[in-house]
Design goal:
Blueprint (H helix, E strand, L loop, with lengths): L3 H18 L3 H11 L3 H6 L3 H4 L7 H22 L1 H24 L13 H14 L4 E2 L7 E2 H19 L10 H19 L1 H28 L1
Antiparallel strand pairs: 1-2
């Protein structure tokens, strides 16, 4: 199974995070403000479309992105190849930035507020992976094997709930849910392109039924035990 690009992305993000850990708070603040994505930075330093992806704010931010990147990235890379996997990741990250920028123009976010992290790119891989390899397994975040199709749907629903609770995409808890939607849209596009709309919808419906049934099965087992 090919994982070359997936592992390279994980290593790159991790090395940058470790390197920044040895810098002063002032230096870290400068890096985020200079190399993070914002509307202001986009026009003065367009390279932030790339640099912002590989900067993470804290260990939880890094680990949550890298563990999901590992499982979904490996599945997509194995199924579609290294080049297409990287393309999906980058396009998802960029479309996430564009979605966020649309809210900057509406004044919901500050124009100069930088955003960082690989989350939108990871959501792109979630969207593709849940359709092209729905029965591959992830052991994160539940410490038990969960099919990628089910896990991807859970993440999509969680993001929708977070988006609604935050109020039109506001970055509650420093999370840009609207950016995640941009990444997910790119990923689903490639997933449907590969599997076809009928098969893709069938996978989503099956996983949705499983997700709905899990609480009832869990409650029933609890009563039996």
């Amino acid at each position: 199974m090919s994982m070359r690009v997936t592992l390279s992305l994980v290593v790159l993000c991790t090395v940058i995070f470790i390197g920044m850990a040895f810098l002063s708070p002032e230096a870290n603040k400068y890096i985020v403000e200079r190399y993070g994505f914002s509307g202001q930075n986009l026009f003065t330093h367009p390279e932030v479309l790339v640099t912002s992806i590989f900067i993470h704010g804290d260990l939880e931010h890094l680990l949550s992105n890298m563990l999901i990147l590992f499982f979904f990235g490996a599945a997509v890379e194995s199924e579609l190849g290294s080049k297409k996997m990287l393309l999906i990741f980058l396009l998802g990250a960029w479309l996430g930035d564009i979605f966020s920028l649309s809210f900057y123009f509406l004044g919901i976010y500050a124009w100069a507020m930088p955003s960082i992290g690989a989350s939108a790119g990871v959501f792109a891989l979630i969207g593709t992976g849940m359709l092209v390899r729905p029965f591959d397994f992830s052991f994160y975040p539940y410490f038990m094997p969960v099919p990628l199709g089910l896990l991807g749907l859970i993440y999509a629903v969680y993001n929708a709930i977070g988006f609604a609770a935050a109020g039109l995409g506001t970055a509650a808890g420093n999370i840009s849910y609207i950016a995640h939607f941009g990444g997910l849209a790119i990923g689903l596009y490639f997933g449907f392109q590969r599997e076809g709309w009928r098969q893709g919808i069938k996978i989503i419906l099956v996983m949705f039924m499983i997700m709905i049934l899990i609480p009832y099965v869990w409650a029933t087992l609890g009563r039996i035990i």
